């Protein structure tokens, strides 16, 4: 039995079938849920108590289930407070900027030049903290406000593994880029992701956007050309890595819509991160052995010789999980357009702070190029939202 065969069990999934093409038995689900629940033809769980109303002689078990369902509905429809919205936005803003600056500090100024091993630490933190957070949320919310979505089949595991590969590729290449190029240029290059997403959607799905939406990508591309052409610290490896990271992010976004299109297989962002992280961790082991065999010994030496390195690596890795967690939370408190605006603002602030901290030179035309990419991304998001309303 191979290690990959055991991974679905680790994720909490049920091995319903011995062949990837087989689906879980609905009869088994029905036998487990009667008399409280029944599955409809659309494979949705039908709550008999919620439909028929409380019976005069309802059992305590049914009453408890009904109370949990009502409490969950009230929780989901409760409008977020202004304080919580501002808090989530502030944490999201700080964590997204902090992780970029910390990565650059470790891979550049600090001298720990092992981006693949650093990504391994990030994924290890995501595995530990995602499992711990789901367990703690479930313990604190006995009514089931936090839903844990286990893997349903081997087929779904293979789909999640495919997404994990593209996700991992984007993270590794992004870290590799920060070893060679300034944060300001990496932020400008990251703005090309919407254009790559539109291209990937057209090539894989045949999806066509409105002409105005494509027009908004022109300033993005012009800005990238200016930023790259007038970047004093331009490095070929860093440029290609940053470009590849944007492409991998775009590919993952499109593949996620394709592979998880089945309603029974849809996963929210936090559950998807919880399931992808162990796969990414396994994939990184041979990559470290091949590309960075000396990284573990160097890390161990720094841990024993420099006490501050432990705080730095733990803080950096934990921040990687917080970034993903706040990315999930902020979508619940803001709109998609607000998120794009915040993303543009985050990129600008990260660029300014990085220039002040790392003293990298920025030309006037390079700054103009970055400004054009920010304007283009904002216009792209606006036209996409307007087209969706029509």
UniProtKB/TrEMBL annotation:
Signal peptide: none annotated. The keyword DNA repair does not apply. It is found in: Membrane. The keyword Membrane applies. InterPro entries: Sugar_P_trans_dom, TPT_transporter. The chain crosses the membrane at residues 82-102, 114-139, 160-181, 187-205, 272-291, 303-324, 336-358, 364-383. It comes from the Eukaryota. It is a multi-pass membrane protein. One of its GO terms (cellular component) is membrane. Keywords: Membrane, Transmembrane, Transmembrane helix. Residues 86-381 form the Sugar phosphate transporter domain. This is TPT-domain-containing protein. It comes from Coccomyxa subellipsoidea (strain C-169).
């Amino acid at each position: 039995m191979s290690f990959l065969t055991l991974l679905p069990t680790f994720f909490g999934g049920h091995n319903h079938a011995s062949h990837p093409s087989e689906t879980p038995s609905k009869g088994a689900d029905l036998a487990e849920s009667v008399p409280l629940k029944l599955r409809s033809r659309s494979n949705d769980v039908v709550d008999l108590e919620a439909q028929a109303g409380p019976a005069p002689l309802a059992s305590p078990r049914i009453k408890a289930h009904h109370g949990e369902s009502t409490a969950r509905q009230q929780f989901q429809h409760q409008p977020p407070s202004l304080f919580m919205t501002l808090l989530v936005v502030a944490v999201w803003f700080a964590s997204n900027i902090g992780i970029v600056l910390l990565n650059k500090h470790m891979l550049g100024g600090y001298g720990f030049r092992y981006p693949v091993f650093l990504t391994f630490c990030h994924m290890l933190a995501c595995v530990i903290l995602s499992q711990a957070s789901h367990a703690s949320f479930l313990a604190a919310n006995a009514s089931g406000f936090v839903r844990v979505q286990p893997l349903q089949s081997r087929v779904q595991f293979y789909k999640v593994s495919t997404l994990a590969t593209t996700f991992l590729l984007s993270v590794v290449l992004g870290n590799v880029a920060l070893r060679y190029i300034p944060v300001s240029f990496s932020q400008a290059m990251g703005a090309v992701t919407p254009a790559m997403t539109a291209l990937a959607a057209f090539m894989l799905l045949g999806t066509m956007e409105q002409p105005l939406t494509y027009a908004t990508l022109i300033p993005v591309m012009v800005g990238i050309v200016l930023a790259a052409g007038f970047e004093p610290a331009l490095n070929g490896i860093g440029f290609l890595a940053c470009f590849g990271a944007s492409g991998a992010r775009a590919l993952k976004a499109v593949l996620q819509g394709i592979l998880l299109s089945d309603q029974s297989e849809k996963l929210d962002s936090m559950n998807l991160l919880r399931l992808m992280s162990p796969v990414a961790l396994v994939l990184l082991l041979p990559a470290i052995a091949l590309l960075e065999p000396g990284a573990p010994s160097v890390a161990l030496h720094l841990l024993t010789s420099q006490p501050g390195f432990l705080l730095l690596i733990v803080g950096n890795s934990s921040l990687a999980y917080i970034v993903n967690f706040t990315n999930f939370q902020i979508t619940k408190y803001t709109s998609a357009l607000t998120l794009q605006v915040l993303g543009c603002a985050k990129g600008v602030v990260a660029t300014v702070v990085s220039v002040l901290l790392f003293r990298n030179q920025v030309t006037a035309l390079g700054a103009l190029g970055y400004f054009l990419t920010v304007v283009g991304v904002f216009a792209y998001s606006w036209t996409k939202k307007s087209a969706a309303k029509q």
